[in-house]
Amino acid sequence: MIHAESSGDGVGVRQRAYRRLVRSRTGLIGVLIVLSVIASAVLGPRVSHRDPNRQQVELALQPPAWLGGVGGTLGTDYVGRDILSRILYGSRVSLTIGISAVAIGGTLGSVLGMLAGVHGRWVDGLIMRVADFQLSIPFVILAIVIIGVLGPGLRTLILVLGVTSWVSYARVVRSEVLSLREREFITAARAVGASSARVIRCHIAPNIAASVIVIASLEVARMIISEAGLSFLGLGVPPSTPSWGSIIADGRNYLTTAWWIATFPGLAVVVTVLGINLCGDWLRDALDPRLHRR
Questions:
Q1: For residue 64, what is the DSSP state?
Q2: In angstroms, what CA-CA distances link 89 with 53, 86, 205, 230, 274?
Q3: Rg of the chain, C-alpha, whole Å
């Protein structure tokens, strides 16, 4: 996929990435969206001073302020909780889960993929058969089993998403390593007595880093959608913790009478995932050396 045999041109790669970002309108839009979501997660309490879990029954089901409501900018839910505050605080949960799950899945998958590609034979066969077995189990069923054993919670949800996402990294990294290990610079490193650990650390890992980064950027979006889906089913974070999926679940019974409860967190998911995907496409183009020759 993406190869960069020389690790000394990091500055050049960053400069090319910056130039491509400036020239790419969609990439720039994606970066701005992601930065806006991060800013809302960090500055959420300062933007909205309302407690996301504070119940005010007298303000229940109030429409957004521009529609004449008195409960808040984006309205309130069925127990009077402020929708804007819950979305802002929910962005923290979604980003935390997405980034943490990708860190776990990316690290685990990359390590196993490199081991499978470098050592081959029974190591490769064992890891790939485990991957095939996991892919044969539907994600929701596997998540229900793990959450049922460990109990629901933020840490459990991160663990579930991280452990179930390593396969995509492992398969890509394995294929990259299989093509790299026959290259001349790998053969030369082995000829001068470099150990397998040194070959992986100094020659293989830098060359597969770009591919892993691109996959990770796109996987963050998938983790956010998965978290929203599990929270919608009641398998995510506790009810006392605002998340986009649980807010959408709260509004499913009020779609005709209080559409704003489910609509605005749904838009938050769509816009955030779109921004992350645009960033992922930009990273793929910026880090692929084949595109630099055009």
A1: P
A2: 10, 5, 36, 18, 20
A3: 23
pLDDT one-digit tens code per residue, 167-218: 999 999 998 888 887 788 887 877 887 777 787 778 888 888 888 888 888 8
- Pull the structure tokens for residue 137: 């189990």
Packing angle, helices 260-287 and 25-47, rounded to 10: 140
- DSSP readout, 245-264? HHHHHHTGGGTTT-THHHHH
Adjacent-strand bridge partners of 285: none
Q: 105, 217 in Cβ contact below 8 A?
A: no
CA dihedral (21, 25, 30, 32) positive or negative: positive
Alpha helices (H) along the chain: 10-23, 25-47, 83-119, 121-135, 139-150, 154-163, 166-180, 184-191, 196-199, 205-232, 244-250, 260-287, 289-292
Note whether 278 and 33 are within 8 A (CB).
Answer: yes
Strands (E), the chain: none
Backbone angles phi, psi at 72, to 5 degrees: 165, 175
Asked if 272 contacts 94 with a C-beta cutoff of 8 angstroms, the reply is yes
Task: State the average pLDDT over residues 92-120.
Answer: 89
Question: What's the topology of domain 10-292?
Answer: MetI-like fold (1.10.3720)
The predicted pLDDT at position 264 comes to 93
Minimal CA–CA distance to 92: which of 4, 20, 154, 183?
154
Residue 265 burial by Cβ neighbours in a 10 Å radius (0-12, 13-18, 19+): buried
CA-CA distance, 294 to 280, in Å (whole number)? 20
**What's the pTM?**
0.82
What is the arithmetic mean of pLDDT over 117-134? 88
**Cα–Cα dist 199/185, whole Å:** 10
